[in-house]
Model the fold of this input.
Amino acid sequence: MSSSSFHPLIPCRPSVGLGFRLPRDKRNKNFRHTDQKCPFAGRWAVRGRIIRGVIVSKKMTNSVVLRRNYLHYRPKYLRFEKRHRNFSAHLSPVFDRAAIGDEAIAGECRPMSKTIRFNVVQVNPKSRKGAQALLAQAKRFKKF
Done:
């Protein structure tokens, strides 16, 4: 077996810095996994921007699409307009309970692929009312 195809079990660090810690249910000392892109176990340093968004898609393997809503000021009309931006982010197996509609916080890291430049460091679960209701809620603008 070649050394490049073998992925040993990697122990997790309790924190990636910036106040983000490993989820409580994964904090026992024996928890290990093989994801080398995990911010807690791999060598992917979190640096740069920290974004907060809502998970709108989990169709990719170990990756999610985060939707970030914001307001943009239009000086001509003296008003704000609603805008959004979608970000692709790596979702480690540490966050195995993440679902569509949950709020996620992702930190910038070096590029993992063509579109993925962020790594999820925290997931805040929302109430489970049904997949369609959560998806509709995720795409609704919730600034005020």
Q: What stands out?
A: The beta strands are 10-11, 15-17, 20-21, 32-33, 50-57, 63-74, 79-90, 103-108, 116-124. The longest strand covers residues 63-74. Residues 52 and 98 are 14 Å apart (CA to CA).
